[in-house]
Each structure stands twice: as structure tokens, then as C-alpha cells.
Design brief:
CATH topology of the largest domain: Immunoglobulin-like
Number of strands: 8
Low-confidence stretches: 6-26, 155-161
Structural class: alpha/beta
Number of domains: 2
CATH class of the largest domain: Mainly Beta
Shape: globular
Largest sheet: 4 strands, mixed
Helix content: 10-25%
Number of helices: 1
Length: about 160
């Protein structure tokens, strides 16, 4: 009887030890960089490009060991909030290339209505600096842009015959 009790105690202690070790190892986020709330606004030919994708590409060293991206989806009013790890968490401090792509259908990431001319990190529309604290990127107003259209539809919109 005493031996059974010792086995249960040592098994219980081992189980608690494994839980503690796994808690330390699982969900670790030490690879993440600290982010700062970042938002902005954009218009194209005077109108908000709803569902356009704004992306910041880090200049120099990557954001983190996983080479994460900072991005945001333009809302109906032309505003966007950047996300790196969690929705709306912002971007880490540093210098970035600011690029934008406006797919005809966001869900299928189809043809860019901007003809990919603003989606090249090698020649960005502008660069931005993110600092500690809250960041508001200067409003972007793209004018005289000839929009490209596509007849492609995302799979979710294609009706079977």
C-alpha cells in the first residue's frame, strides 16, 4: 500500500513537472518584436480603395526571425490599421517601404487594379518610420491613376452550371 502511494505521488509530481515545462516551451513569443499601434489612410483618385492591402516591408534587418509582415486592409472610409502578429497590434519600430495592392476581389487576390505599380518594395511609393508609441502614417493620396479591371471572379462567386 505504501509503495502504491509513492508511485502515485511520483507520477503526479512528474505530470506537474511536464505541464510546467510544456507551459514554458509552448506559446513562447520571444521571437516576436515589440509592436506599436500604427494606422493611416489612403485615397486613389479621391476615393477610398476599399479592400486594398497596405503593406510595410522592413528596410535592412527583418522584423523578426520569422520575417513577419506588417499589413492592413483599407476600410470603406479609406483608413487602415496595421497588423503584425495580432489584429491591430501595429508594427515594430524601424524604417519601412510602404506598398499597396488593390485586388479586384480581395478573397481571391485577383488582378491588382493599380497594375502592380505600387506593390514593389524595391521602388516603394514612400518610406515610413515607425517609432515607439502610437504612429499615424501621413495620408496617402494617389491621383491620376488608371485603374485596371479584370473579369476574373473568386471561386466563391462562380456559380456552378
Amino acid at each position: 500500500m505504501r509503495m502504491d502511494r509513492n508511485i502515485h505521488l511520483s507520477t503526479g509530481a512528474a505530470a506537474i513537472g511536464l505541464v510546467l515545462l510544456s507551459a514554458i516551451g509552448c506559446g513562447r513569443s520571444d521571437w516576436k518584436s515589440r509592436t506599436y499601434p500604427t494606422s493611416g489612410s489612403v485615397t486613389i483618385n479621391g476615393a477610398p480603395p476599399k479592400d486594398a492591402v497596405v503593406k510595410l516591408i522592413k528596410l535592412g534587418e527583418p522584423i523578426d526571425t520569422r520575417q513577419s509582415d506588417c499589413w492592413g486592409i483599407v476600410q470603406e472610409d479609406g483608413t487602415y490599421v496595421l497588423t503584425t502578429y495580432e489584429p491591430g497590434d501595429g508594427a515594430p519600430a524601424g524604417e519601412y517601404a510602404w506598398i499597396i495592392r488593390w485586388p479586384v476581389h480581395l478573397t481571391a487576390f485577383t488582378t491588382d487594379q493599380l497594375g502592380e505599380q505600387f506593390w514593389n518594395p524595391e521602388s516603394p511609393h514612400m518610406t515610413v518610420t515607425i517609432k515607439s508609441g502610437r504612429n499615424e502614417i501621413s495620408p496617402v493620396e494617389l491621383t491620376n491613376i488608371e485603374l485596371k479591371q479584370s473579369n476574373a471572379k473568386p471561386a466563391s462567386l462562380v456559380m456552378p452550371k
